[in-house]
Amino acid sequence: MTMPKRDTYTPDSLLAVAVEVFNERGYDGTSMEHLSQAAGISKSSIYHHVRGKEELLHRAVGRALEGLFGILDESGATTGRAVDRLEYVTRRTADVLVEELPYVTLLLRVRGNTGTERWAMERRREFDQRVAALLKAAVAEGDLRADVEPRLATRLLFGMINSVVEWYRPDGRGTAQAEQLADAVVRLAFDGLRIQR
Amino acid sequence: MTMPKRDTYTPDSLLAVAVEVFNERGYDGTSMEHLSQAAGISKSSIYHHVRGKEELLHRAVGRALEGLFGILDESGATTGRAVDRLEYVTRRTADVLVEELPYVTLLLRVRGNTGTERWAMERRREFDQRVAALLKAAVAEGDLRADVEPRLATRLLFGMINSVVEWYRPDGRGTAQAEQLADAVVRLAFDGLRIQR
């Protein structure tokens, strides 16, 4: 057993530890005991910070959702042709995935029965619908292909983007790596693998 | 408690029940007791069919892998330009995902420490590498864009394709639905969302 250490956690640093444990064990499979062990402080010290593990989940997925919804308020997402706004949102979503990797990973894996999990899934669906609406508008404006049903196209687009949490690992190149990823996502999503002649 | 029923299972029908439970509870979270309850037969009846849950996992992911590797031996995957072979493999992978949905879902979720899980992950990596090699060949032949690193492109391609297991639900239209999906995957992966002018 690890000796308890002095509790010097801030809300953010405790959250970072909790998210790591949630992603490793799954939210359901994580007990306060696991969190206490991972943080190296007693359960009662954790209760000094939060009411319980659901509050940690709420803060963690809230942070991911804030990052994602924040994109939709940026000027690149609100002005211009729908196709350009969609491209902007796609690129920025890739950025946020990388910047908030553990938090978005947790958000994407949430499927469960607590109120917080249902809330997170609902908010995620809302984000997807906002993007689907943008995609539909770009089809209507004649910039995106009409031969793929917009909901299906949105799902495949998010399938590509969200897969990033499964395999992305920082390689030490920092923003250069993140930029390369966002470029690749935008190129493939909008123009595909094939050289257009 | 459910009353045990007479054991009329075939290897395939027992496997189908087990895969459903594995996908719902996770392989680690599934005990022989859970399998017994879901199948409605005693644990000893299950042991009459298989040595244990790892054998069921092995058969299940084996079935998914057989479907996927089978594609690579089909003539569409072995003859012609690399770009056409890659397109063929992409389309057929979408088909196999739909045809073998619960088995491929299980395969894609496997990450663990038993020998069978490591074997499945290794075989999956091997499949990905075969496809990555095809993609690289198509870039070398000048048919696919060279400005996205082939390994990254392969990951994003599989990210899009594999996401299908997360949201695809048969809607009763049978092969029409499956064909629509495979068309959409091929169009988006190769030519992107944008109308090429």
Q: Would you give an account of this structure?
A:
Two copies of one chain form a homodimer. In chain A, helix 1 packs across helix 2, helix 1 packs across helix 4 (53-73) and helix 8 packs across helix 9 (150-162). With 197 residues, chain A is an all-alpha fold. Chain A is elongated, with a radius of gyration of 19 Å. Chain A has helices at residues 11-25, 32-39, 43-49, 53-73, 75-78, 82-99, 101-109, 115-140, 150-162, 164-167, 175-191. The first copy, chain A, has two domains: 11-50, Arc Repressor Mutant, subunit A, CATH 1.10.10.60; 56-191, Tetracycline Repressor, domain 2 (Orthogonal Bundle). At the A-B interface, helix 9, helix 10 and helix 11 of A face helix 9, helix 10 and helix 11 of B.
**CATH architecture designation of the largest domain in chain A:** Orthogonal Bundle
**Number of distinct beta strands of chain A:** 0
Percent helix of chain A: over 70%
Query: How far do the termini of chain A sit from each other?
Result: 64 Å
Low-confidence stretches of chain A: none
Features:
elongated, 197 residues, transcription regulation (chains A, B), homodimer, Tetracycline Repressor, domain 2, 11 helices, Tet_transcr_reg_TetR-rel_C_sf (chains A, B), 72% helix, Arc Repressor Mutant, subunit A, mainly alpha
SSE blueprint and pairings:
The structure is a homodimer.
Chain A: H1 11-25, H2 32-39, H3 43-49, H4 53-73, H5 75-78, H6 82-99, H7 101-109, H8 115-140, H9 150-162, H10 164-167, H11 175-191
